[in-house]
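Appendix B, Record 12. Input sequence as logged:
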Amino acid sequence: MSVSSHALAHLFRLFGYQPHPAQLRVHLSPAPRRLVICGRRFGKTTLAAVEAAVGLLAGARVWVVAPTYRQCGRTLAVAGKMLVRIPTLGESMAISRQPPRLSLWGGVIEGKSGENPAGLLGERVDLLILDEAARLSREVWESHLSPALIEGGRALIISTPYGRSWLHELFQRAKEWEEWEVFQFPSEANPLIPTGLIERERRRLPEDVFAREYLAEFVLPQERAVPEFDPEVHVGEVEFDPWLDLYRAIDFGFSDPFVCLDFQITPQGQVRVIGEYYRRMTVLSEHVRELRKGEKSYPFALPPGRDYYRSGGEAGERIHYAADPSGGGLLAELRLRLGRPIIARRVLRESSFMELRELFRLRIEGEPAILIHPRCENLIRELSELRLHPETGQSLGSDHAVDALRYGLAAFLPWREPVEMGWTGGGWPP
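Logged structural output:
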């Protein structure tokens, strides 16, 4: 799939798209494989959407792969909005929302999620776009996506850097490979960023976070895994709210502790960790008995005259579980014994720690975005003491309650700006 610079310029005008100089360098690169490491607000979603739209008009099969369907859906939404600017094109374009898909005249853009590696096997693509590649696992790239390019497909890999992951290795090695072109752009490469924003962020953020998010540098994490956690700020007397749903997040263990954290999320998005179950050397059936007791201890607000036992499961339907996705047989047994659905979302370890740090840094209406009850002693201890190995990223110390928190937040908390599949300004065309 090759498009001349003259044709690109014509399509950009039709799309209403005026790339800034750094974006244009990527678009004009003749390299079959392009790796773009860039800072926040660089314009990477628009860059990826334009590449996908051009591929569709060229009759190519395009995959947009992101950590979640929401993220790839955002890229397809931007591409769709550009394409419908071309007269009569919207009438010919077929749109699917679940999973995200655009098709036109033999070309197709398909949204794919790194959460479902099985859906990435055995397919040949003309153009592969990886959005936020650092949040995808090494296995997804090496075993599922890279083989799809064997027969001459092109690739655009674009991401903000996260530590020293497989993407950092590729970034270093690809500089020496003939078929690759590697780009690295700080946020300020986008001339449309408001004046003063970057300097304000430099003052606000920890040095390593700013270097990653705005300078597009691969940096090692600070010594503490979650240095933003401050017991003076994030520990407080938060109690169960009977009008809110309850979320329970589990990390499996036997000689290591089995952990279940109970938390709620307010309508404003504040996370309140209200309970902790932390026990070693106990079989799963006993854990389940304790979990059921814990469920019944929460007095949900129900219609008058109806309590937990007479509600036909109404209160139970307001309790949601997440667990370690690597639990295997334990996960299946827990589902069976509890009789409840359990979300087990695979999360890239390093990026989920970055998101956890972001949560502890955020404020909602002047309040911390997360509060932890003092009774959650082990979670508080681990957040205070946990360190990560500077090279491998492995935990140095106990991390079981922190892991449970990561699994729960990955399952139930809508990170950053949630993207719904619908025409809402930048969303899907009608």
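The first helix runs from residue 5 to 15.
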